[in-house]
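ping. complex inputs:
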Amino acid sequence: MKKIGKVLLIGLGIMIVVVCMVFYETIIHPQRSSKVVQFLRNPEEHTDWAVKAQSRCQDAPFLLPTDGLIGYLWGDSFRIGKHHQGIDIFGGTEAGITPVYAAYDGYLTRLPDWKSSLIIRIPDDPLQPGRQIWTYYTHMADKNGKSYIAADFPPGTSEVFVKAGTLLGYQGNYSGSANNPVGVHLHFSIVLSDSEGNFENELEIGNTLDPSPYFNLPLNGKENKDIIPVCSHTP
Ligand SMILES: [Zn+2]
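pong. complex structure:
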């Protein structure tokens, strides 16, 4: 009887520790979250927290794809067991206003049923030559799914070459289901290729890369809990 009690007690102890760990993980870095709220309330007062579209941090291979506050990072956890596969850049404007540009040269595809998303194939990863990667851009539609993607890239577009800095569309708030808007932002992620050369499922963090070295910014949410990533210099 006593033994069972001990086992139960140890079990309870382990459970409490696990619950605390999960809780810590899911309160997604309060410093950064509170700054997102402050920025969205009054973007003009916090322009120093925002990055500039088409600028480059030092010698980073990628251009920043849009203006705004990089509020959520790669690896941030919003829900138990789920980790953010990319970065979220909040423009601080209404939907359909803040432009989104290509971060790097590549071949653009928009599947026939994509309202708010597109993907650009980069045949030669600038940081790992010989490897093919993809850059994925989403939330470019209004809350009902009316697309803000540039007219040059209609649904069904396949393998159209675009230069870094090409206008792709505008930040929106489409969540994927109508009338269930998210905050106006761009979600950007770097997705790996499968063995056939197609893009892997973007929804799995294991299929994506830490974007930090591509932008020269601290974009890894596991390492950077509090800092709002901005370019520290301007040459
Ligand atoms: Zn996101």
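The two ends are 72 Å apart (CA to CA).
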